Amino acid sequence: MLRLGFHDTAGVDDLEHLSAGGGSVLRSVVDTVLPPDANRSREKLTEHVRFIDGYLVGMDPADLAQLGWLLFGLEHGTILAGKLRRFTRLPPADRADVLQEWRTSSIGLRRLGYRSLAALGILAFYRDDEAFATIGYPGPLMREGWVGPAEAAARYDALLAPADAEPGSAA
Fold it and tell me: What pTM, to 2 d.p., does this model score?
C-alpha cells in the first residue's frame, strides 16, 4: 500500500541485494519495459524483481551501490522529465515517456542507466518459458536434464574422474 510517499514494498521488502525501495522502483521499470502482451500481474512482476536480485549475486558492492543510486535517481528525477510525481507513482504511459527520455538523452550516463535497467528487465522476462510464446519462439532445444545421444553421453562420461577422486588428483 502507498502512503505518505513511501514505496509499495510488498513482496520486495526482503531482497538480498537491493533495498525495498529499489525493488519497488525496479518493479515499475520491469512493468514498463516488458512487451505489450506480457503478464503484468503484481505476482509476476515481483517474481521478475526477485530473479534480478538473485542475478546480482557476486556483484561488486560498489556496483550494487551504483545500481541503487540509479534506481533512486530514476524514482526522484522525474521532475526533469516534466512530471510532478515519482516514477513509481506515474501511470504506465508517463513511465514509458520518462524511460524514452533516458534512452535518447544527450547524457551518456542516462542512456547507460536506461540500457542497464532495460536489459535486467528483459533478462528476467525472457528466462521464463511463458515469455517464449509472445515472440513465437518454441524455447530452447536442450532443456535441463537433456543428455543427448547415448554415444555422446558415453564419450563424456569416460572423461569424468571417479566419484571418489579428490579434486586435482590423477584419476
Answer: 0.76
